[in-house]
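Project standup — Tuesday

K.O.: blocked on the structure for the chain from last sprint. Re-posting the sequence here as requested.
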Amino acid sequence: MSLIAEIIENPDHPKKEMIQSSFAKVAPIAEQAAEIFYAKLFELDPSLKALFKSDMKEQGKKLMAMLAIAVNGLNRPQSIIGAVQDLGKRHVGYGVEDAHYDTVASALLYTLGAGLGDSWTPELQEAWTELYVDLATTMKEAAKSAA
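H.V.: unblocked you, prediction finished:
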C-alpha cells in the first residue's frame, strides 16, 4: 500500500508528521534548498540543464511551492492527487522522461539531508522516499495517459 493510501486510512500516520515537521524546518531556507537541489540535480545529470529554460531562482520558487502543496496536502491527501496528475501531464511537454524521476529523487533526498543535518535520520529518509515514490508514480501514470 502506498504511503498516501496509508495516510488516507490513518490521518494520524506517524510518517505524515515526520514529513511535515521536517519540511517546516526546510521551508525557512527554501531559496538555499532550491539552489542545493538544482546544483545536485545538474551534477547528477548535466543534460537536464537543457530542460530548464526559465530563471532558476523562479524555478526554485516553483519547486518549493509544489513541495509545500504536497506536504501540506497530506492533511487532505485526496486533494493533492489532481494537482500531482496535472503536474505530471505538464512535465511531458517539458521533455521529462521516466528516468529523470530517479535523478530528481536523489537530488531531493540529498537536499533534505543537507538542509536538515543531524535531523535527517534513516526513518525520515524512508518516509520522504515513500512520499516521493507515490508522487512520482502518480505523475508518471498521468504523463503516460497524456502522451
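K.O.: great, moving the ticket to review. The chain has seven helices and no strands. Residues 3-8+15-146 form a domain with the Globin-like fold (CATH 1.10.490.10).
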